[in-house]
Specification:
Blueprint (H helix, E strand, L loop, with lengths): L11 H12 L2 E6 L2 E7 L11 E6 L5 E5 L3 E3 L19 H13 L4 E4 L2 E5 L10 H7 L11 H15 L3 E7 L5 H16 L8 H15 E2 L7 E2 L2 E8 L5 E9 L17 H9 L2 H7 L18 H20 L4 H20 L16 H11 L3 H9 L2 H9 L20 H28 L7 E7 L17 H31 L18 H4 L19 H10 L5 H12 L12 E3 L5 E6 L4 E6 L11 H11 L4 H12 L3 E2 L3 E2 L6 H14 L3 H5 L3 H17 L2 E8 L4 H4 L21 H11 L1 H10 L3 E4 H8 L4 H7 L8 H12 L6 E3 L3 E4 L3 H56 L3 H129 L1 H164 L5 H144 L4 H128 L4 H126 L6 H21 L7 H16 L9 H14 L8 H10 L7
Parallel strand pairs: 7-19, 8-13, 8-19
Antiparallel strand pairs: 1-2, 1-5, 2-3, 3-4, 6-7, 9-10, 11-12, 11-13, 14-15, 15-16, 17-18, 20-22, 21-22
Length: about 1700
């Protein structure tokens, strides 16, 4: 869709004129001198030949019949000054040139061409580049700004900030078209608008930069009076904030040979003329410029015209000021002037011609050479040897890059010998090249910065297309001009790639079909004729292969070939790219010239043919050591200012392979650019060929293109208005058929058409109009423009995440209601027609502004409410302050309050001063910390930058080495393949040679045989004449036959030849006819192709116009729909207003009825008031009557008065009710107004509330559904829980039932068990009775039993005592071990405490020393304070004396006052003049004020004295505190020393206790041994006791007959268990006898056999049985009372153990 023009209101005349224009078909007639406006005349069908139309010229009305191909459709007059060429209704050459011409005539030099900019160089600099114009473009979008070069800079800067991607601006055009001027404007705009930190990059500094560049790099040419002779790239690095952080300039392709050799009528670099004209006397003397040479070998001569000299002098002053601005010191400037002066003197010195003075090469004029040597800081011999010595050897070595070196004698065969003048020219060009590189380094030094940069903006400026024929010169173009034209061709190729190739590839990738058949997809093929490399470029071979290669490669090959010349180079070039190859498409781009050394090359797609003169071009490909010696000569200079500059530069890599300058820089982006360029020079072919002077041209341009290709490119096409504008000569051409308009600046239409065709600008505009130039990724488009669809945002949320971005974008586009043809959905992007995205951006800006306004309104409302709250608080505070002031005024005269207000500030003064002092100290500490942190931060930043630069350098070096290795490997592989190929060829040739030798030998043998036969025949004739006659006849007959055959064959051959000649003539005629037909068909095809292209372009224009109309209709439909919706809304509002009005009318009627009723009530009240007043009157009359009646009593009178008062009160009440009724009426009226206003407000807010209610209802519905789901889940959970609870309840009920059953069963079992226990108890009692009876019956054995019992008790007692003693000894031993461990721990703790005390002692000593120092300082302060106090006391005494004097003066003044008062009274009594009295009163007041001042002074001094006393007391207190603290520290030290001594004594005592405990331990061990012996004896006694127990067991078994013997068994088992427990306790000391153990085991086995059902006995029964058994066998339990108690507590134990 086309970019729409701004919509303006048109008058009826304009509308009628447009209708008339569209009614008449206006066209442009294209002819040789331009184009003319005409009207197509409608004719009858068949009246004109096919392809012809009849037109009528507008300027003179001439009728012409012309071809259809010679006319182009014209646009309406409203498009004559269109700002964008893409918006033209019909896009063709004539319309574009007419638009450019109209704008150029109106001083509008800039025009948009789609995304590009077209600038026509004006003759005079207009006032459109001022600072005011800069600020007009600041922050503007491209769509909102007029065409200007500032708009390009602003667009690039805006893209850089939004995308954080590198940008570049490339300037294209012919020489003299204003590229360098526009480059300066671009840089100045960016620097002034973006700004820089600290304003380090000012416009003045950049003006100084370009002043220096113009002086050292510009010169006057045939095309331009101030032409740039080098290419440069300005790199501006921007930081995070969008400010310029650093900058640099890289230069390449310097025309250094211009110093010594250049075309006629052209000058050298400007700086030579500036220096010769502007140097002051001292500089002239130092440079030896007082007497300039009359002639120079370099042609550097001072200017002859006075005005030129004056201008050059002014420029030199300006140059010196510019160097001063950039920080170039005087010594550095002096070094530059010295080198320039040396170059000039070298030209004046000249060189001898070949053959002079025995062929030696030397200077022609040695005195000038001596001056040059002096200026360079070297001797004449060193200078001469650097220039002239070792040339042949150096040339041979440098030009031959092969592995083997040629012999010295073969140097003359490699080509023409180098002349002395060529050596001198090489030295001069080398010196100037080094000088220019140094100047660039100094400029970059002034521009660099250490700030961190984020992205860059590059501005590329190169010399434009050079063609001497445009400047009416008859010379051929030089090699330097070829290099500049080649650079422009490469930049044009980049433009074609970005505009056509990438766009078509993007459409193909995104599956977008676009018909662009008429647009050429191939770039200019003249580039291939210059730089095309062969596949064998890496092979080191001398062979000339047949593979096509470019001119630069041919020059490099011919320069190193023996006998190589320019003729052979051109022949090879024509053989590759000439017109001899008919099937080659590029054959027409290279033609032969009229002379041998001339050739024509078609640049800019064949629209700009340049004739080149190749004579002497091979010298550019040869290395001259003089140029290489220039750098060494400058580095070894005796002048410190020269050698210092070049030695410092030699250490850094500021020049890349001697070609690209300005690669220095410490920033990350500068290092990245340098690495990129180095990679270009170290990859592939470049690694081998980078030393070649010709290939360096290609490598430099490759590096430039590669650096620009990494960024987003903005192209500016600079057009040359006419050749006479810069070259001079001749009158400007006027378009045929049109009178020159004085208001328009004329243009060379032919030149302008050639520039438009060469730049392919129309094709770029066509693809811009027909395609989709604007595109965005789906996610980015959705995030950026979803603000235009608030309903989608509300639906999905602000940061909603979608799975299908394409579907989301489609929904967004549908909601935006865009026309279908204005956008296209790709696979990953959405594409837009031109202008669509800008309109969306504008809508987004409007919506954003609206949102921001609403946000600001909300913020302002919030701030206003906060301010209102603050005002309320302030009001409350003011009330509080007023209250306090009133209170203060109440206590103002109170003496205690005066005392308080006097003392309070004095108390706070000292505190405030101390706080201030503390805060100052904190501030100083924080400042020191801040400075330290800043210093560390800067150091870290510098170190990080240094490390980053080092890392980058190392990585670049590593990449260089890697690339070099890859190149070497590639070269080795190619050489290996070439060697194998050559070996194969050699073998083939050897085989051919062998076969040829064999054929030769066979033929020689045949010849020898023939000779021998002939000789033998001759000999035979001589020998035998008879036989010879027969042979002679045969021989003659054979000869006759041969002659006859020969004649016959000759006749046949002549006949055939004649036939063939006839056939040939026929074929030639046929071929000529076919060629004519072919040419005719080619012409027809070309015409048809042109016609097709024209018709296609017109069709596309019509289609675009139709799309524009459709989009306009779409917009109108949108507006109509919007209007209809608004109309329906307004109608609804009208209906709502009517209903509200009716409602208000009803309310009004109701209010009127209320008012009427109130009025009636009011009238009733008035009647009542009247009746009351009448009644009052009657009462008054009655009162009068009553008063008249004297007989009435006082009670009736009082009653009447009371009634009167009541009536008056009622009257007042009624009046108040009337007032209230009136107020009520007024309030009702106000309520009516409020209701009307409320209805209006409700009407406005109703729509908003409806929307919000809908949203709320939706949210409530969603929340209710969520809650419903949650409640369902909760119900399910509660149901599950209820089921669980019911289940648990059932389980508990079953458990309860089972428990009850168990309880019932348990009661029965308990009853049974108790009865059984009772039976068993009775049986045991009976058994005990039986045992007693048995004992009584066995009375004679009582004495033995008693003895045994006593012995057993004694043995058990002894054993128990021994066990107890042993246990006590073990306890003591364990206590001793614990004590030993405690002692060791205490010892360690004491040692740690001792070391800690030692450290504390050291700390205390250090603190004491510090306190002593502080004490000394305090004493010093105290002495100073005492001195100060003494001084203050002296001051106080002085002040007291002054006070006494003041008191005396006061008394005197009071006396004077009294006297004056008495005088005043006297004067008043004596009627003195009032003036005298007022004067005396004023004097009295003055004295009173003085007295008050003295009082305040006295008070201040008294407060000062008090403060000084307080300070003195405080200092004394501090001193006392310090002394007391010192005493305390000394005491603490003594106390710690005592603690140390006590700890030492405790350790010694603990050691003694330890030795004593070891002694006791030994004694206890001896006792234990004796006790063990006793234990053994006791065990023997125990064996005897067990033997007796066995006997008893046998006796008991006989007596056990019933089931009640379980108690006895349990008792025996308990006794055995007690014995086992005793044995277990005694097992740690000694082992039990095995026999005793056997006895015990026997008892246990017996018990286990007889225990039966004893397991079910209750605790009470077991307790009884155990006690009974204990009584029965008491002698078992007497050994250990503690165990008996345990048995009693345990209730008899478990019988099963």
């Amino acid at each position: 869709m086309m970019i729409g023009q701004s919509i303006k209101v048109k008058t009826e005349e304009q509308i009628a004129a447009e209708q008339a224009w569209y009614g008449s078909e206006k066209v442009w007639l294209v002819h040789k001198d331009g184009f003319s406006l005409a009207t197509v005349v409608k004719t009858e069908a068949g009246s004109l030949p096919e392809g012809k139309v009849k037109i009528k010229l507008e300027h003179d009305g001439t009728l012409l019949e012309v071809d259809e191909d010679d006319i182009e459709k014209a646009n309406p007059p409203s498009y004559n000054r269109s700002e964008d060429l893409a918006s033209l209704l019909y896009l063709n050459e004539s319309s574009v040139m007419n638009c450019l011409r109209q704008r150029y005539g109106g001083n509008l030099n800039h025009t948009y061409a789609g995304p590009n900019m077209v600038v026509i160089n004006p003759l005079s600099t207009p006032s459109m580049y001022s600072e005011k114009v800069m600020h007009m473009f600041k922050g503007c979008r491209r769509e909102d700004s007029a065409p200007h070069v500032y708009s390009v800079a602003q667009s690039a800067y805006r893209n850089l900030l939004t995308t954080r991607q590198d940008q570049s601006i490339v300037l294209l055009g012919k020489s003299g078209s204003g590229k360098t001027t526009n480059c300066q404007h671009l840089v100045q705009y960016l620097v002034s608008i973006a700004g820089s930190t600290g304003k380090i990059f000012s416009a003045e500094k950049w003006q100084a930069v370009y002043t220096i560049l113009e002086a050292f790099g510009n010169s006057s040419t045939s095309m331009n009076t101030n032409a740039s002779r080098f290419s440069h790239v300005v790199s501006l690095d921007f930081d995070q904030a969008g400010q310029v952080a650093s900058a640099s300039i890289q230069t390449m392709l310097l025309e250094k040979l211009r110093v010594s050799k250049r075309p006629e009528a052209e000058s050298t670099f400007n700086v030579f003329y500036y220096m010769m004209a502007g140097a002051d006397s001292s500089l002239r003397t130092e440079l030896h410029f007082n007497h300039l040479a009359q002639n120079s070998a370099f042609g550097i001569l001072p200017q002859s015209k006075p005005e030129d000299k004056q201008r050059a002098s002014q420029q030199f002053t300006k140059l010196q000021a510019a160097m001063k601005v950039l920080g170039i010191s005087g010594e550095e400037q002096k070094a530059l002037w010295l080198i320039l002066g040396a170059v000039y003197h070298l030209g004046a010195a000249g060189a001898t011609k070949d053959g002079d003075e025995a062929g030696r090469r030397q200077f022609a004029r040695h005195e000038w050479a001596q001056k040059a040597a002096y200026l360079l800081g070297c001797t004449l011999e060193e200078l001469s040897s650097s220039i002239f010595k070792h040339q042949a050897k150096g040339m041979q070595h440098s030009t031959s890059f092969r592995g083997k070196a040629d012999d010295g004698g073969q140097g003359d065969n490699s080509g023409p010998k180098v002349t002395a003048l060529e050596c001198l020219e090489a030295m001069a060009s080398g010196l100037y090249s080094e000088l220019f590189t140094l100047v660039i380094s100094l400029i970059n030094r002034a521009l660099k910065s250490s700030q961190h940069s984020l992205c860059s903006l590059l501005i590329v400026d190169t010399p434009g297309f050079q063609n001497p024929r445009i400047a009416q010169q008859q010379r051929g173009a030089t090699f330097e001009e070829l290099c500049h034209n080649y650079t422009q061709e490469r930049l044009q190729t980049l433009f074609h790639e970005r505009t056509f190739v990438q766009e078509m590839e993007r459409y193909k990738e995104e599956n977008i079909e676009l018909a662009l058949d008429d647009i050429e997809s191939s770039t200019s093929l003249s580039v291939a004729a210059i730089d095309q490399a062969s596949t064998q470029a890496l092979v080191r071979t001398l062979a000339r292969t047949d593979e096509a290669r470019g001119l630069l490669w041919l020059m490099e090959e011919e320069a190193v070939q023996p006998g190589g010349t320019e003729e052979t180079m051109l022949e090879r070039l024509f053989s590759y790219y000439g017109s001899a190859q008919g099937d080659n498409k590029g054959a027409s781009l290279l033609l032969r010239g009229e002379k041998p050394h001339l050739f024509l090359l078609g640049h800019s797609h064949g629209t700009d043919w340049v004739e080149y003169n190749a004579q002497g071009w091979l010298s550019h490909a040869k290395h001259n050591p003089a140029a290489q010696n220039a750098a060494a000569l400058l580095q070894d200079s005796q002048k410190k200012n020269i050698s210092g500059l070049f030695m410092g530069r030699a250490s850094g890599a500021t020049v890349l392979s001697g070609s690209i300058a300005g690669l220095e820089g410490s920033s990350q982006l500068a290092l990245r650019r340098a690495t990129s360029m180095r990679k270009t020079f170290t990859t592939g072919v470049a690694a081998v060929k980078k030393k070649s002077l010709c290939i360096q041209v290609k490598l430099q341009v490759d590096a430039l293109i590669d650096m620009v290709r990494r960024s987003r490119v903005h192209f500016v096409h600079c057009l040359l208005p006419r050749a006479e504008a810069v070259g001079g000569g001749g009158e400007p051409r006027v378009t045929h058929g049109e009178s020159p308009d004085s208001g328009l600046m004329t243009l060379d239409v032919g030149l302008l058409r050639a520039q438009l065709r060469g730049s392919k600008l129309l094709d770029a505009l066509r693809i811009y109009r027909q395609g989709y130039p604007d595109h965005m990724v789906f996610s980015e488009f959705r995030r950026r423009f979803d603000v235009l669809a608030p309903h989608l945002t509300k639906k999905h949320g602000r940061h909603y995440i979608v799975t299908d971005e394409k579907r989301a974008v489609e929904e967004l586009l549908e909601s935006l209601d865009l026309e279908k043809s204005s956008h296209h959905m790709g696979l990953s992007r959405v594409f837009f027609r031109a202008g669509t995205l800008s309109r969306l951006e504008e809508q987004r800006d409007v919506q954003t502004r609206r949102n921001i306004s609403l946000f600001q309104a909300a913020c302002r409302g919030y701030l206003a409410r906060q301010a209102f709250k603050k005002r309320k608080i302030q009001h409350l505070a003011i009330r509080c302050i007023q209250k306090n002031i009133k209170k203060n005024r109440g206590v103002k005269g109170w003496p205690w309050w005066k005392l308080f207000t006097t003392v309070r500030p004095l108390i706070e003064v000292q505190l405030t001063e101390e706080q201030i002092r503390g805060k100052d100290e904190e501030i100083q500490q924080l400042k020191q910390k801040l400075e330290k942190v800043e210093k560390e931060r800067n150091e870290l930043r510098l170190s990080s930058d240094r490390l980053e630069s080092r890392i980058t350098e190392l990585s670049s070096e590593l990449a260089d080495e890697r690339n070099t290795g890859e190149s070497a490997s590639q070269m080795l592989e190619s050489e290996t393949s070439e060697r194998l190929r050559l070996e194969k060829d050699m073998n083939d040739l050897q085989a051919k040679f062998d076969s040829t030798n064999k054929q030769m030998e066979s033929m020689e043998m045949e010849v020898m045989e023939a000779r021998l036969i002939r000789a033998s025949e001759l000999n035979g004739e001589m020998d035998d004449d008879d036989t010879g006659g027969e042979w002679r006849l045969k021989y003659e007959r054979a000869i006759r036959e041969i002659e006859f055959t020969k004649k016959r064959l000759q006749q046949e051959f002549e006949d055939k030849l004649e036939v063939e000649q006839q056939n040939k003539r026929q074929l030639e005629r046929r071929i000529s006819d076919l060629q004519a037909d072919s040419e005719e068909s080619q012409r027809n095809i070309q015409q048809l192709k042109k016609k097709t292209q024209r018709m296609t372009s017109e069709l596309q224009d019509t289609k675009l116009h139709l799309e524009g109309q459709q989009s306009r209709n779409h917009d109108l439909e949108k507006k109509q729909r919007k209007f209809d919706s608004e109309l329906s809304g307004v109608q609804e509002e009208v209906q709502r207003e009517k209903s509200l009005k009716e409602k208000l009318a009803r309310e009004k009627d109701m209010l009127a009825g209320d008012a009427f009723s109130l009025r009636q009530q009011l009238e009733d009240k008035d009647l009542e008031v009247c009746a009351a007043s009448l009644k009052l009157e009657t009462l008054g009359a009655e009162l009068l009557d009553l008063n008249s009646q004297e007989s009435k009593d006082e009670a009736s009178l009082a009653k009447v008065k009371k009634q009167l008062r009541d009536m008056e009160a009622k009257l007042k009440d009624q009046e108040e009710e009337l007032d209230e009724q009136a107020g009520t009426i007024q309030m009702l009226e106000q309520a009516k107004l409020r209701l009307e206003m409320e209805t209006e407000r409700l009407r406005q807010t109703h729509s908003k509330e409806v929307e919000s209610k809908d949203d709320e209802v939706e949210e409530i519905r969603q929340s209710c559904s969520k809650k419903l789901k949650q409640m369902e889940v909760q119900l399910e959970e509660e149901y599950d829980e209820k089921q669980k609870v019911m289940k648990e309840k059932r389980e508990l009920e079953s458990k309860m039932l089972s428990a009850q059953d168990k309880v019932r069963g348990g009661d029965i079992e308990t009853e049974k068990r108790l009865r059984k226990d009772l039976k068993r108890t009775k049986a045991l009692l009976a058994d005990a009775q039986i045992m007693l009876d048995h004992i009584k019956n066995n009375a004679p054995s009582k004495r033995e039993i008693a003895q045994l019992k006593n012995q057993l008790e004694e043995s058990e007692f002894t054993c128990a005592s021994a066990v107890k003693a042993r246990k006590s000894m073990e306890v003591e031993i364990e206590d001793l071990h614990v004590q030993m461990e405690d002692i060791s721990k205490t010892k360690q703790a004491l040692e740690e405490q001792l070391s800690r005390l030692q450290r504390e002692k050291n700390d205390l000593q250090s603190r004491m020393e510090e306190d002593q120092e502080d004490m000394n300082e305090l004493m010093k302060k105290h002495k100073a304070a005492v001195a100060q106090s003494a001084q203050n006391l002296g001051q106080i005494s002085d002040l007291q004396a002054q006070l006494e004097e003041a008191l005396k003066e006061k008394q005197e003044v009071q006396e004077k006052i009294q006297a004056l008062q008495s005088q005043l009274e006297f004067q008043e009594q004596s009627m003195v003049e009032k003036s005298l009295v007022s004067r005396q009163e004023a004097k009295i007041r003055e004295l009173e004020t003085k007295l008050d001042f003295e009082k305040t002074q006295v008070k201040r001094l008294e407060s000062l004295v008090a403060r000084l006393k307080e300070n003195l007391e405080k200092l004394t207190e501090e001193r006392d505190q310090r002394s007391s603290g010192e005493i305390r520290e000394k005491e603490q030290n003594k106390r710690l020393q005592r603690q140390v001594r006590d700890n030492k004594e405790e350790t010694s005592e603990l050691a003694k206790k330890e030795s004593e405990a070891s002694r006791k331990k030994h004694e206890l061990e001896m006792d234990i041994e004796s006790l063990e012996a006793a234990n053994q004896s006791l065990q023997s006694d125990l064996k005897l006791a067990f033997k007796r127990i066995g006997d008893l067991q046998a006796a008991i078994e006989d007596e056990m007959e019933s089931d009640d013997n379980e108690d006895l068994i349990n008792s025996l088992q308990d006794m055995v268990t007690k014995y086992q427990k005793r044995q277990n306790r005694a097992q740690g000391d000694s082992d039990t006898d095995s026999e005793v153990e056997d006895r015990v085991d026997g008892v246990k086995s017996w018990l286990s056999k007889n225990k039966g059902s004893a397991k079910n006995l209750s605790d009470d029964g077991s307790l009884k049985s155990s006690s009974t058994a204990g009584r029965k066998y008491y002698y078992f339990d007497r050994s250990d009372e503690e165990e008996e108690e345990e048995e009693k507590e345990g209730g008899g134990g478990d019988p099963g153990l």
